Batch of 4 targets.
Target 1
Amino acid sequence: MDSSEKTPATSSPRGRPPRGRPPKLQRNARNGVGKGAEKTPHMAALILARGGSKGIPLKNIKHLAGVPLIGWVLRAAQDAGVFQSIWVSTDHDEIEKVAKQCGAQVHRRSSEVSKDSSTSLDAITEFLSYHNEVDIIGNIQATSPCLHPVDLQKVAEMIREDGYDSVFSVVRRHQFRWSEIQKGVSEVTEPLNLNPAKRPRRQDWDGELYENGSFYFAKRHLIEMGYLQGGKMAYYEMRAEHSVDIDVDIDWPIAEQRVLRYGYFGKEKLKEIKLLVCNIDGCLTNGHIYVSGNQEEIISYDVRDSIGINLLKKSDIEVRLISERSCSKQTLSSLKLDLRMEIGISNKLAVVDEWRKEMGLCWKEVAYLGNEVSDEECLKKAGMSGVPADACSIAQKAAGYVCKSSGGRGAIREFAEHIFLLMEKVNSCQK
C-alpha cells in the first residue's frame, strides 16, 4: 500500500480476535479432492503500488538489499502457495514492468482510484469489479519487506478453515501512552495505559496490539459492503522483527539491515558464492564494437566494473568471462583483468557446468550475469543470477536481479554489491 492507502475502512461489528494459530492440514474438500468436493474459494493476493507516492518517489520499486521493494512481498506471496492468483494494482509503467518481472499479474488501475485521496478500499473494489472469479482478497502492503510465507499460510487457514470474514496483521508493542496537550492550553498530561505509581516491568506487562499494515485479508462480500475489517473478525500477531514498514527515506538503511537479518530470501538456504561467470558482450561491455583503420577490434568498458571484479576477487570469489562470439582475446587481455575466459561458446551452460564441477561447487555457489537468450539456462541454474538494465526480455525473466545499470555501464559493480549484501545474510545465518 502507498502511504495514502494505509487506512482501511472498518465496520462496526466487533469480535474477540484470537491470535494467529499454526496451520492445520488442509481438508480434502477444501482442496477440491475427492468425490463431491467443494470448490476451493479463489484467494487472490493484491499489492497496491501507486506511482505517485509522496514520501519516496517510486519507492515500491526502489532497490532494498538488492531487490526491488515490491519483490520482497511478491516472493513471500508466491512461496506461501495459498493464492490462486497474485496481482499488483498500479497506474505506473515502470512498476508494471517490475511486477511482471517478479512474476505477478498486473491490474492497471484507473485515474479515479490513483489520487492522493484514494483509499486502499477504492482500489480493491475496482479490482474486484474486473475479477468476478475472486472470492477472497489478501491485500498485502508493498512496503513490508520482512513478510514471511508462513504468516500468509496461517492467515489463509483462518479465512478458509476457521471461517473468519476478515483477518489483519498486528504487532505487540510495549509503549506507555500519555494524553496530548494542545499548545497554549493550561492542562496537565494524563497517563493513558499505565499507573505511574506502579510502572510495570516489560516482562510483567503483555503490551498492546497495534495494526502494522502488513496485510488485510477479507472476503468479497465484506468488501462489497464497503469494509476491509468486519464480520467475523480476527487479528494475526506478527513477530516484532518481521514488522518493518518503510515510509520515509531515513528508514531505508535501517530497513536494509533488518531485511538482511530477518527477511525471507526464498525456500532454499542461501549458499556462499564462490564463482561469478559474466557474459562479455552486453555485460562487461556495452555491446558496441569499434573497428580501427587497421581492422583491429576496439571495445570499451567501465572502470567501476573492473573495481567490482577486483573486490570480488579479494573476497575469494572467482570471476570468469564467457562469450558466444569469437572476441579478440588480445583485445580482452589488454583490459588487464587477469580472468579466465572462454569465447565462441554455443553452449554456455555446458561450459559453466564444467567450471562448477572443476571447482567442486554446487549450483547454489555459482552466480551468473548475462543479458542474452543464450544466457537463459545459466541464469535459471545459478544460485544467484542477474542481468543489466538493458538485457533482453527473456534474460530478464530468467534472472533473480535486474540491475539499474546497463551493460558496460557499471552493471558488474552493481551485481557485485548485490552479491556482497546477500553474503552478509549468509554470514549472519551461520552465526
Note: The first helix runs from residue 69 to 80.
Target 2
Amino acid sequence: MIVKQHVFLTLYSIFGIALKVAATKNKARGSQGQFPIVQNVTVTEGGVANMTCRVDSNDNTSLQWSNPAQQTLFFGDKKALRDSRINLVRASWKELTISIGEVTLADEGQYTCSLFTMPVKTAKAFLTVHRVPDKPQILGVTQPVLEGDQVTMTCVTSGSKPAAEIRWLRNGKEVTGLKEVNLSANTYTVKTSLQMNVDLNDDGVIYTCQVDHVSHPSTPQLATQELVVHYAPRVQIKHTQPFPQDGQFLKLECVVRGNPAPEHILWTKDGGELPDLDRMIVEDQELTFTSLNKTDNGTYRCEATNHLGTAHDEYKLFVYDVPTTPPPSTTPPPQPTPPDTTPSIDTKHANPAVTDPNALGPHNTDHALIGGVVAVVVFVTLCLIIVLGRYLARHKGTYLTNEAKGADDAPDADTAIINAEGNHASEEKKEYFI
C-alpha cells in the first residue's frame, strides 16, 4: 500500500512539474537568482510544528514541501500525502507554510523545500522533537531509618529527549549526587544517586529530586522524600535561676529529643523519689519548686526511655541564703552580686556534693574593720613605749653625772655623793644627750 502511494505521489509530482515547465519556460530566466528560505523548527512531542518556505520574488514558480522520507507533502496548495495531521496554512507564489499536528518522535528529521526553476533549487530545514521526561521517582528508602545506617537514595526519570538534568536538594540546599545516563529507543533514562550515613539531624529533613528539561525550562518536575530517622533519647536539663535563693520559685525543664518519642520520663532526687510532692510539682517534662528551702539541696536527675535506649541528665541544686538588704536610700540600689560560690576546705566536715559558700561571705567586712582597729591600737602602744624609754634614759644620765662630779676629791662613795650635792648649788654643769 505504501509503495503504491509513493508511486502515485511521484507520478503526481512529475505531472505537476511538466505542467509548470510549460507555463514558466519563458519566465525561468527571471527566477534563476532566487533560492527558497527556510528555518529549523523545534517542537515538543504532542505539539504543532509550522514549516515555512518563502522566496523574495517569484514568477509564478511552484514551491513544494517534502518529508525526511522524500515524500511530497504539499505541491503549491495541493496536498499530496494523506495524513490528517498535515495541513496547509498559507500558499502563494512567495510562501508555502504547512503545519504538522500532534508531532511524534518519528516526525523528527530533515524536511526539504523545493523551488521548481530550471534547475530546481532546494533548501533544507531540520525538525527537532523534544520529549518531556516522565515524572521522577525516588527509590531505595525504606522508612524508618535507624541512626547510623547507610542510605542510598536514587532519583530516576525516563523517556526524555534530550537527556534531562537531575539535581538533589536537602531542605532546599543543593547537594551532589552520582549521575548515570542511558539511551534506549531515542529516549534517555537518567539516574542520580545520593549516599549518606544518617544521624538524628537527618530526622525530618526533606530531600527533593528536581528534574530540569529544555521542554519545560520554567517548570521543573519534582519528587520529594521526608526522611524519618529513629534514634535513642537525648536529654538536657534547663533551669530558670542561675543562683536560686531561699523562698524563690524554680522551674527545671527536661528537654528530650528522641524518635519515637520517649515512652517514660522520670524525675528523681539523689537516686530516690522526690521527697516533697506538695512543693515539687511534676508536669509533663517540668519539675517546679513553688518555694525553695535548704532541704531541697541535692542532685536531681531526669531520665527518658524509648525502645532504642535510655538517657539522663543531672542538675545539682544548692539553695543560697537571701542576701542582707542595704538601708533605704533615694537612689536605686545596684544589682545584687551573686554569692561567692568558692567552697571552704574542711577535710573532716566538708560535703563534696553540697557546700555553703555563704558561710564566710557576709563577715568579710567585719573582719576587715576589726583588723584595722587592732593595727591602730598596736601602733599607738609602740609610740608610747618609745617615748617612755627616752624619758627614762634621760634621767638616768643626770644621776650618773652628779655622782661623777663629787667623786673627784672623795675617799669613798658616800663622801662623793655629799660632795656632789654641796657643789650642785655652786656650779651647774649641763650635759646634752644626743
Note: Residues 8 and 284 are 89 Å apart (CA to CA).
Target 3
Amino acid sequence: MSGSLGRASAALLHWGRGVLLKGPALRTRSSGPGVSGSGSTENLDALVKKDKVVVFLKGTPDQPQCGFSNAVVQILRLHGVSNYAAYNVLEDPALRQGIKEYSNWPTIPQVYLNGEFVGGCDILLQMHQNGDLVEELKKLGIRSALLDAKKDQDSK
C-alpha cells in the first residue's frame, strides 16, 4: 500500500506543478454517531445524490486521517473542485460499513459524481492522469482549474 501511496503523491506533485492549491469551500457533513439509519441504503442513496460531488473519507478535507483520503482531497483541489460534500466515516461506524456495502467497494475513500460511484483514490488518480476527470467534471458543469493553468502556461 505504501508504494501505491508514494506513486499517488509523486503523481500529484508532477501534475500539480504551478497550480495554486486553494482551501476548499466545501460542506463537511456528518450523519453523527449513532444516528438511526445512517448506514441504510435509503440514507446513503440520498447522500450520494444530494450533491454533484460527494466524498466519503477518513477525516475531513481540512484534516484527512489517511494518505489515500488526502490524495483524493488534493486531486479535487488541483482541479479547483471546492463545492462538494464530504462525509467523515470515522465519526460513524454504521456509515463506514454502510457505504462499503452500498457501493460494493471495500475501501475508503469513495467518490461519487452526480450520484454515480466513481471509485477510490486509485481510480480518481488514474482519471486525473489520463484526463478523464476533466471530462467528467465538465459533464457536471465544473470547469477544471487545470485547464486554466494549462492555458496560462501555454500563453507564456
Note: Helices lie at 2-15, 41-50, 67-78, 93-103, 121-130, 132-139, 145-154.
Target 4
Amino acid sequence: MDMYVVVVSEEIYMGEVIMREEPYVCIPTSSDPLCQRCFKSGDALLKCASCNIAWYCGAECQRLDWKLHKLECRAISRLEKKWQELVTRTPEIRLMVKLFIRRKLQRDKVIPTTPIDNFDLVEAMIDHQSNMESEKLAEYQIMAQIVNHMLQQPELDLDEAVNIFCKLSCNAHAIVDIAMEPLGIGLYPVMSVINHSCLPNAILVFEGKLAVLRALAPVEKGDEVIHVLISYIDLSRTTRHRQDDLNGKYHFTCTCPRCSKFAEIDDQILDALRCKEGECNGFFVTKDRSYSRDQKLECNKCGLVKTSEAERSAKGIIDRLCDKGKSDFFSDNFQEAVSTFKRAEEAALDLFHPSSFSVMMVRNLLTKLYTTIGDTRAALESCRLMTPVHERLLQTLNPVRGMHYLTRGMLEWVEGNRGDGRNYLVRAGDILLLTHGTNFPLVKELLINLAKDHAELAKKQEGGPSGS
C-alpha cells in the first residue's frame, strides 16, 4: 500500500498503544448475540425486527448504524428464508454486502471518507488471487452472485466481487476477546499492511470491535508502521505447522529468526506424529520447506516414510473425540464428556509428543470442563501439565500464556495454594497489562485484587510471621 505511509510520531515504549483503528466493515460471529454496532453482549440486546439477524444493545447504537443497516435489511429481505439462513451461516457474504453498501454510501457522500477510512484502501489490498485454488475461486463466484442478487447495484462487477473475496480471505481479521474467543470478523485496511513475524514486536488486540496495536518492544520515533510486526497465526505450533498455516491462508513463507529453526529436528518433534513401526519410538519429520498437503514425512529413527495425510488422519481421531465431548457437554452429560475428553487425551499422548499442540488442546478443554463442573482439583492437575508447554512454545509476552497463568493462579488459590496462586496471578498481570492495558475489565479487576492482596500481605508481615 504505497499510497499511504503511516509513521510513528513519538517514541513508543513497551506496552504502549501504537495506533487504533475502527473497522471499515465488521460483523459479529459469536454464538452469543452481540450488538452489531459496538459488539457489547448482554441480556438486554434487541433483535432487528426487519431482518431478524442484527442485534443492538439500545436505540442509540441502532440509530448510528441505521444508514448502513437499512440497506443491509433491504438486501437480506430479497432472499428466500433458506438463503437468509445461508447468509447468516456465511459471515464472508454479510461482510461483502456491508462493504459494497459502505462504498456506495461514501461515494454518494451519505457518510464521510477520510484518508484512513475509504474504499481506495480496500482496493490497494493484496488479493493473492493467482495463488487461490480453483475450487475456492468457484465458491467465490457463487458467493458473488448471491451478493449481486442481494444488492442489485448496477455498478457491481462480479469479477471485482470475486477479487475482493480473495482480499477478505487474507486480510480480514478475526475479532477476539481477551480469552481469544471469537467475537466476529472485520476489515482493518491500515492494520492489514502490518507484516507477520513468529517473533512479533507488537500485538493486535480488540476493545470491542476497535483494533488496538500495542508495542511488545520499544518503537523508535519515525519508524513506519510496516516495520512493526505482529503474528497472524497461533504461535503455539512448531515451525512446520506455522509455515503450513501461513502458506495455506496468506500464501507466503515466514523467514523470521524463529522459522530459521525449521531444519532442527527437536523443533518438529514437539508436534510430530509418533512412529509405531515395530519397537521404533521415533517421530515423523520433514526437511521439505515447501507447502503441500502431501508432504513426505520421514521417521527420525527408522527412516520410514509416510505422507502428511497420516498425520491429518491421526488428528482427525482426536478431533472427532473432542467434538463428541463438546456435544456431551452441551447436552449436560458432564460425566460422559469427561470420559470422552480423557479418551481424547490418551489418544493424543499415544499419537503425538506430550508437548504437542494436540495434547495441549485436549488438556485445555479438560481444564475448562473440570472448572465448569466444579472439580477444581482435577482442573488444576490438567492445567499444571500445560504450563511447561506454554512456556516452551510461547513468547513471554503472549496473552495466551498470560491467560494460562491467570487460570492456573485462580485454581491454585481456590485449592488453598495461596503462594503459588499469588505467583501465577502476578505473572498473568505482568503480561496482560502490557498486551491489553487496563481498558479490559478482567485486567483491571486482576490488578485491583493483586493490589489488595499485596496490601493485606504487607499488613500481616508488619504484625509478625503469618501462615500465608
Note: The chain has a mean pLDDT of 90.
